[in-house]
TrEMBL record:
GO molecular function: hydrolase activity, acting on ester bonds; nuclease activity
Source organism: Zestomonas carbonaria
Protein name, as recorded: VRR-NUC domain-containing protein
Annotated keywords: Hydrolase, Nuclease
Superkingdom of origin: Bacteria
């Protein structure tokens, strides 16, 4: 069944938006778009099987405040730095106690090891010609967000974990969907792009009371998730602190270093690679 032109355009627009900083324009054919949507649907079904115990646990704890579970958390590992003095510079955010770290860790490690991929067409110059080729881009953050969103949907939008919810920068008001515990999306098929104009969306928001909207007063933590090759940026964390009106609600989770069960190899971990701070979402 062919994808309606408007739907395809919305998805491609969102894809271009987040890839806009690249040297080459990214495009997707109708076939490639259909393949991506099929992969998203497949991943949502996998979530119900792989994370069923997590979903069941969240369902039983629907009336329990999230802060109750934060008390048992040990925080992240600020003694580990991917580069430079990252661990000490962002120690406050890394060591922030957050609830549900084990469930978040399972999701993020799954996204790290088995991300959804999308094709990106690039043009290479060769003597006397320009050759077009296609490479696959791994969308680790998008994969993690889709998993969090699938868990939320399975719980009738009463999960404590909200994937990339949008907030109006000026008013700090949450952009609510229907029901009000569901983040509003512009595209129902590819949820996270495009974003409403003038909005800010933390990677993950943990709410205190699950049956209430994810407005700032009900946020326990806004979590910035960083996969390998995606450097921590101070202005990004500062933006979340301004949104939440305090640093105390902002946390940083690096995958896999700050995930439950991570075992470090050697005395320290330093990651080499890109230094731009940009990420494939």
């Amino acid at each position: 069944m062919p994808i309606p032109a408007a739907v395809g355009a919305a998805i491609v627009w969102g894809y271009r938006a987040y890839r806009g900083y690249t040297a080459y324009e990214a495009t997707m054919t109708a076939k490639e778009t259909a393949e991506m949507l099929a992969e998203i649907a497949k991943r949502k079904e996998q979530v119900k099987k792989v994370l069923q115990s997590t979903i069941d646990s969240f369902a039983k704890e629907i009336d329990v405040k999230s802060s109750t579970f934060a008390k048992a958390d040990n925080g992240g590992r600020s003694t580990i730095s991917r580069r430079g003095g990252e661990g000490s510079t962002f120690k406050e955010y890394i060591e922030r106690k957050i609830p549900f770290r084990p469930a978040i860790s399972i999701t993020c490690n799954w996204a790290l090891n088995s991300p959804i991929t999308v094709p990106r067409r690039i043009r290479k110059k060769v003597p006397g010609d320009v050759v077009e080729t296609t490479i696959d881009i791994a969308l680790k953050q998008t994969t993690a967000s889709l998993i969090f969103e699938a868990i939320d949907g399975a719980l009738d939008w009463k999960s404590p974990l909200k994937a990339e919810p949008n907030y109006d920068r000026a008013s700090r008001k949450a952009i609510l969907g229907e029901p009000v515990t569901r983040p509003r999306r512009i595209s129902e098929i590819f949820p996270f792009w495009p974003r409403p104009k003038g909005s800010l969306a933390p990677d993950l928001v943990i709410v205190e009371y699950r049956q209430q909207p994810f407005e700032v007063p009900n946020v326990f933590a806004a979590v910035e998730i960083k996969f390998p090759g995606d450097w921590v940026k101070e202005d990004q964390l500062r933006g979340y602190a301004v949104l939440m009106k305090t640093d105390n609600k902002v946390a940083l989770l690096r995958v896999p270093e700050d995930c439950t069960g991570y075992k470090q190899d050697g005395a320290s971990r330093t990651e080499s690679g890109r230094s731009s701070g940009r990420k494939h979402r």
